[in-house]
Amino acid sequence: MTLDATTPPIRWLFAERDKRRTALLYWLADPIAGAYFHAIHGAMRILPTDACSWAGAVLTRLTRKFYPDSDARARRLWQRHNPEHADTTSTDAAMERLWRNVGRTMHEYSVIDRLWAEGRIATAGLEHMHAARDRGQPIVVTPVHLANWEVVLVAGIANGYHGTGIYLAPENRFLHRLINRVRARYGARFIAAGPNSLREAYRELRAGGGPFIIYIDALMHDRVQAPAFGRTLNPASNIYYAVQLAERSDAALIPAYCERLDDAARFRVTFLPQLSMSSAANKSMRVRENAAALNAVIEPIVGARLDQWYFSLDYEDEPSSPRRDGKAERAR
Questions:
Q1: Which of 13, 29, 254, 287 is deepest in the core (most CB within 10 A)?
Q2: What is the pTM of this model?
């Protein structure tokens, strides 16, 4: 086994408290969690696709009880945006759909490479992608975390768009390797998020690489940055980075989203028309106007599908104190 500079020495297991905690996490807790992730993944992978997805839906009856704060946030968001369905019965039904979707999505990761071949993904709007490609124009695709959000990549790759995305690596190194292996099965390529990731994205686009994928509703700075839903968009967020990248690389910016059909492992991926970019003379104004225009496209799409939006579980109107049950901990 090769150790790098960040690997805590085994002797730290017998050192002072802080070093011992770091070593226990690396040498004991992470391998145990990694073995669990691999075991669940292996077990789900041998199941038929429908059974794998169903198992995820059923298990959320148990796992959701560990995330009461996430459930409360999602309830508030649903009731605020659906006043006509804000009664207890309707809200409970929406939360049931939301958690079932989350469970299905997590488990479908084990079989995501099968979904296209099994005819489980319908597409709409591919002509917008084709038009940009035929013009020889780079493409920036901006999905959101609806339904099984990586199905957008699966659909694009299946139709000849072998793009690249930015991802935030999980802390557990074993889970990280598993995710990379799963993505490699269906042909996805990602680069790690970092201070130079947008520069690398720009170089790839200008060099004629495939579409670049940026999920614009990311949880950043302990806040779901988009859609705005009446808040001020944060310039240090993916929705701003996406429009800046598209403008700098003269790329077609194409919003996209996935929706789950009939509470099952079946989906529709929609690629929307290319965003019409601002012609304002001032660069800062152009970026603000383009971010606002992109938000205006995605906000009603997400708002109409809050029971399939993963970040319903994290969304708050204002930044909050550190979460006790945040996204990073919500796994299978």
A1: 254
A2: 0.90
